[in-house]
Write a structure and sequence with these properties.
11 helices, binds adenosine-5'-triphosphate, binds fe (iii) ion, tRNA N6-adenosine threonylcarbamoyltransferase, Gcp-like_dom, ATPase_NBD, KAE1/TsaD
Length: 350
Amino acid sequence: LTILGLESSCDDTAAAIVRLNGTAEILAQTVHGQAQLHAAFGGVVPEIAARAHAEKLDLCVAEVLRASGLTLRDMDAIAVTAGPGLIGGVMSGVMCAKGLAAGADLPLIGVNHLAGHALTPRLTDAVPYPYLMLLVSGGHCQFLRVDGAQEFTRIGGTIDDAPGEAFDKTARLLGLGQPGGPAVEAEARQGDAARHAFPRPLLDRPGCDMSFSGLKTALLRARNAQMAEAGGLTRQDRADLCAGFQAAVRDVLAEKTRRALAAHPDLRLLAVAGGVAANQAIRAALVDVAEGADTRFVAPPLALCTDNAAMIAYAGAELFRLGVRDDMTLAARPRWPLDAASPAMLGSGR
Ligand code: ATP
Ligand code: FE
């Protein structure tokens, strides 16, 4: 089973070819990021993103076909992110996929971007269902119970910001570069986490919901207090703020993960995805939690944790095997909760 996947829901245009033959193999993949295009605006500009996706999609497809030595005729289906995401970008991808599918007379499969993230551990490792997925990225933060390629149950998640977004804002407040995660992590290594008493929101409440917006405010206050007192921030002040902030995020994620595993004793595998899972301090805390709960821990390589098309092709392959097929009526969806029972997809507040 050979699937071409397309991804264009945020600020990365990507294509990949994945073969599923007992095990999954990535035959070719490419990602064209748009960071420079948006840098001057301090965030992703939807119109600019949509235009860039429309320009880059064909190029991405040509690249992976060339790299794999295959043609569209060798594909069994075209999988494309059909949401959730920035609607212009998702539409570009869906239109490109429709054109390819119609031209080569191939089945079309619309994939939920979050399902792509949530199924990634099965692309990279021999991970059986069911498992617990912690998805922590720039736009999302949620615990998912994964029982199948179409069976997701949201166990909890952020009620406001995503941690990646908080890392990015922290970096901006402290004059560090973007993306904020790696910059804050590097500073935090030199810092003293105990200097500031940052809150651990919602730990006093039962359940697996989380909140990160208060933490952002606490950081802003601590920074302003320091600036008022000393007239500026030293390198060490910055490092201490980063260390305190990161420790708070780490503690909240670790404790809520511990609770999610305790509440679902049949889940003996914890997998992570999303850019924040690259953070070494957070990852180490999650490894500890998994060990303490006698649970296997799986973290895909970073390039597959962030936005990519291999995860979309792989999810498309699993759906194809389940008999899922879309047609030319496939629509781009800005919102698309993975868990039909969950009222709203919170945590995409950008
Ligand atoms: P989404 O996929 O939810 O729409 P996104 O594409 O912004 O959002 P990713 O590409 O998965 O998310 O991850 C990017 C986020 O991860 C950024 O917010 C970035 O700051 C954060 N991040 C990356 N590396 C680290 C790190 N080492 N520590 C903490 N955060 C990190
Ligand atoms: Fe994503």
